[in-house]
Amino acid sequence: MEFYVIYKYMPITKSAKKALRGSIIKKAVNDRVVKIYKEATKAVVKLSKTNKVEAKKLVQKAQSAIDKAMKKGVLKKNTASRKKSLLSRITK
After folding, report:
1. Are 69 and 34 in contact (CB under 8 A)?
2. I need a labelling partner for 1 at 20 to 30 A (CA). Which of 18, 45, 56, 73 fits?
3. Count of domains for the chain
4. Could you read off the pLDDT of 63-85 as tens digits, one per residue?
5. Could you give the CA distance from residue 21 to residue 27 in angstroms, rounded to a whole number?
6. 48 in a domain, yes or no?
7. What are phi and psi of 13, to 5 degrees?
């Protein structure tokens, strides 16, 4: 399987091809983590406009998803803290 066909610059050496395969896999994992925390955050924001009690229950799941993203290196520590703070402010 040739993964590197979609890129502008094609790797030439064997090690560069291997590195590209690894980076594609890492990107897929990171994209999945980002999708999970963004969906959780959007659900809290949407629900907070109508039902604050239910939104408070979802905040814990969203904060957990943000913490996991921070642990995997997708988000920086301060960014994660800011996003969690925003969620708690919204649901007050």
Report:
1. yes
2. 73
3. 1
4. 999 999 999 999 999 999 999 99
5. 10
6. yes
7. -80, 160
